[in-house]
Design goal:
Number of strands: 10
InterPro entries: AraC-bd, Homeodomain-like_sf, HTH-like, HTH_AraC, HTH_AraC-typ_CS, RmlC-like_jellyroll, Tscrpt_reg_AraC-type_HTH
Keywords: DNA-binding, Transcription, Transcription regulation
Number of domains: 3
CATH topology of the largest domain: Jelly Rolls
Strand content: 25-35%
CATH class of the largest domain: Mainly Beta
CATH superfamily of the largest domain: Regulatory protein AraC
Number of helices: 9
Largest sheet: 6 strands, antiparallel
Protein name: HTH-type transcriptional activator Btr
Length: 281
């Protein structure tokens, strides 16, 4: 998969020619037999359900998704019997055109976009739809100014896609490092832990780390640590005769009374009450 930086560099060097921009309804219950799609195209699914099959790979149509075609793609589609599918679709050609060591380079783009063929899920579908609609509206004007604006709108569309690919890749990287810190918390819950320390370990700002941590786990880092410590404490209270002071130290609390307050806030009972109840069961 191309990363956003590679994609941005490629399109920075590209000259586009838009062959067609349209807004089309694919009727419910219809089927298109396989044919060879011979031009670069990009579709935006506005609404409806069905399937695209591109080079024998089946993609479910979802509102907000973007479908990218490259030349020599074998293409067929089915539309659900339940409702029509509405799409924006843009057909385009392009060449690489850039200056290198004082010399202009012009060459066909060939199959450079092939790794992106298929479905691109969007993070902000309304933004992408606005870009498709802008290309479509400008395409309808045949004067040179409208066509120039159409090309600018098309480049803005690609810029939005690049940003969203970057956001998805950055989010994926963040998920990986946050997963690492979750494992670190599990291995070191007895030790003093701070959000600042964990964010530095992840290489993220404290605010961004906290937001992504909650997106991934459903809890803030602080609450995640607290609930893990309480869970470990419940295990110890249920099956050991250790003192409350020692158990609180084992789960990362130097102050037994603070530990008791935290435990009661999470479980609704004091540690000693929980221990008595557990041993009766």
């Amino acid at each position: 998969m191309l990363n956003a930086t590679q994609l941005a560099d490629h399109f920075h060097k590209s000259m586009f020619t838009i062959a067609f921009a349209g807004n089309t309804i694919l009727p419910a219950g219809t089927y298109q037999a396989p044919y060879i799609h011979n031009i670069h195209s990009v579709h935006y699914i506005v609404r409806g359900k069905g399937y695209y099959v591109m080079n024998k790979v089946k993609y479910e149509l979802e509102a907000g998704s973007v479908m990218l075609f490259v030349p020599e793609t074998t293409f067929e589609w089915w539309i659900s019997d339940e409702e029509d599918v509405e799409i924006y679709h843009i057909r385009f050609d392009y060449h690489l055109c850039y200056k290198e060591k004082q010399e202009w380079i012009i060459q066909p783009a060939t199959s450079w976009l092939a790794p992106l063929r298929g479905r691109l899920m969007t993070v902000r579908p309304a933004e992408i739809r606005r870009c498709f609609d802008m290309v479509f509206q400008q395409w309808k004007g045949y004067d040179p100014i409208s066509q120039y604006r159409c090309n600018l709108a098309f480049r803005e569309l690609w810029l939005s896609l690049i940003h969203q690919i970057y956001d998805q890749q950055y989010s994926s990287d963040a998920d990986s490092v946050i997963g690492f810190t979750c494992q670190y918390i599990a291995d070191h819950y007895q030790s003093p832990l701070t959000v600042e320390q964990l964010a530095k370990m992840a290489g993220l700002s404290e605010g961004y780390y906290s937001r992504q941590f909650k997106r991934l786990t459903g809890l803030s880092p602080k609450d995640y640590i607290i609930r893990l410590r309480v869970k470990k404490a419940k295990d110890l209270l249920a099956c050991s005769g250790l003192t409350m002071t020692y158990i609180s130290e084992l789960v990362g609390y130097d102050d037994e009374f603070y530990f008791s307050r935290v435990f009661k806030r999470i479980t609704g009972m004091t540690p000693s009450s929980y221990a008595k109840l557990s041993r009766k069961l």
